[in-house]
Amino acid sequence: MDLSYSNLTILSFIQGITEFLPISSSAHLILPSLFFGWPDQGINFDVAVHIGTLFAVVFYFRQDLCGILKGWFLHLFQGEISEESDLAWFILIATLPAMLVGLSLNDYIASYARSGVIIAVTSFVFALLLWFSDRITSSAKALNDLNWKHAIFLGIAQALALIPGTSRAGVTMTAALFCQLSRQTAARISFLMAIPIILGSFLLRSAEMIENGSFYDQIFPMIYGMTISGSIAFACIHYFMRLIDRIGFLPFVLYRIGLSLLIFTMVLFE
């Protein structure tokens, strides 16, 4: 990890802020390299900040998760069906497309889809889709009105987030709005769907670190990045859930459009 603590601080703030907001963390993490020529942060940093953001979302939704896990186990071992058990199966089904695509295409995407132009284009296009879905939703459905078809639809949307610039939070909230969920409910299911995806990514990257022997080499910078990203991510989730019904998605849409134009301009004239 050839980065100073000031670099780590900035990148950890960026990751913490952008992981759960619909503005694309990959689009933002490219900015330091475009503006300052920073080297790639490396797998150690990715693992650390993912641990931080995972802790943040798990702690924020701890009551929901306890209910979901309890309902799932009661369904498995006692056949008891509840809203919580249905939600558990919904999240598991929605996780499958991203898991399958990630395992099969992750190396290809990492090698060929991380260019500034692709990130700028996807950020722009999916910002417009977020705006459109927010405009047409009637907010008529509750989360327990959704079925396995909706779960697959949200899962496919989440798989699209493997393309840098798409924004996992943004595309899953967009899909949820297309399913006629309210903004608050769309955000909640997006955050809950993030947990198995972030956990799987963390386990995969940790295995790579253990294999190449670098897991314990930079433990203090990793703890530092984890603490900052987790704290910032928790605050972002908290205020996003409190404000989204009031402010809507338009500020994030306009921000993403501006960001995509900035990235495209920087790439064009570098």
Task: Please give the structural blueprint.
Layout: H1 5-18, H2 25-29, H3 31-36, H4 42-60, H5 62-78, H6 83-112, H7 116-136, H8 148-160, H9 168-178, H10 183-212, H11 219-247, H12 250-268
Descriptive overview:
- This protein has 270 residues and is mostly helical.
- It has one domain (5-268).
- It is 79% helix and 0% strand.
- The protein has 12 helices and no strands.
- It has helices spanning 5-18, 25-29, 31-36, 42-60, 62-78, 83-112, 116-136, 148-160, 168-178, 183-212, 219-247, 250-268.
- It is globular.
- The two termini are 25 Å apart.
- The mean pLDDT is 87.
Strand portion, in percent?
A: under 5%
- Main sheet attributes: strand count, strand direction, barrel closure: none
- Give the overall silhouette: globular
Overall pLDDT level: 87
- Helix-strand pattern, N to C? HHHHHHHHHHHH
Please tell me how large the radius of gyration is.
18 Å
* Fraction in helix: over 70%
- The chain-level structural class is mainly alpha
Compute the number of strand runs: 0
Instruction: Please report the number of helical segments.
Output: 12
End-to-end Cα distance, whole Å, is 25 Å
Low-confidence stretches: none
